[in-house]
Specification:
It holds the Pfam family TetR_C_13. It comes from Kitasatospora putterlickiae. The protein has helices at about 10-25, 30-40, 45-50, 55-65, 70-80, 80-95, 105-110, 120-145, 155-175, 180-190. The radius of gyration is 19 Å and the shape is elongated. The protein is built from ten helices and no strands.
Length: about 200
């Protein structure tokens, strides 16, 4: 069986470089030319290894969710109560969104903030991903209501939307230059709103 030439680049390292570009400049703000330059590969190699720009972005988002963005799912899964989980999410967001080792904020929140109609499908995919995160928040609140850890009348949807809004706002504040201490203070104020 004939085989093609082996890749002459580190795929994981190239993917990390693509992640940094999409994270910093967004989906539309990142060109294929910039990607190939930063990834250290030519366009045919990019298309051969990753598919088109959209396929590369999809892989970046998936990898981001398992690495930089995994703290949300991990906190929701590991903590005993919704309150502990949300407090951890906000605390870890303050650190993650301001980490100088990578672009500020959250890639999933900011990469498709402004896209032209031709890329609506990409924006819709990111919107759906954020909605699924919101569903995870709501499910944790509902579980605590069912277990009696929160009052029976707690509006699980509203509480989930509130904390998702705080997380999204923290991402934007980090992109605007807020420090980890600034965001930790926001997290503390947000947790003071938790139902008694």
């Amino acid at each position: 069986m004939a085989r093609g030439r082996p890749r002459t680049f580190d795929r994981a390292a190239a993917l990390r470089q693509a992640t940094m570009l999409f994270w910093q400049y967004g989906y539309e703000g990142t060109s294929v030319a910039e990607l190939t330059k930063r990834m250290g590969i030519n366009a045919p190699s990019l298309y051969s290894a990753f598919g088109d720009k959209r396929a590369l972005f999809d892989e970046v988002v998936e990898t981001y969710g398992r690495s930089f963005g995994s703290f949300v799912a991990v906190a929701l899964e590991e903590e005993t109560t919704a309150r502990e989980a949300f407090a951890r999410v906000l605390r870890e967001a303050a650190a993650a969104y301001t980490d100088p080792e990578h672009p500020a904020g959250c890639l999933v929140i900011s990469a498709t903030t402004n896209v032209s109609p031709k890329d609506d499908e990409v924006a819709d995919a990111m919107r759906e991903l954020r909605r699924s995160n919101l569903d995870g928040f709501r499910e944790r609140v509902e579980a605590d209501v069912a277990a009696g850890r929160l009052p029976a009348g707690t509006d699980a949807h509203a509480l989930a939307v509130y904390y998702a809004t705080v997380v999204q706002g923290m991402s934007q504040q980090a992109r605007d230059g807020a420090s980890a201490a600034d965001l930790e203070a926001v997290a503390g104020l947000a947790m003071a709103s938790w139902p008694a």
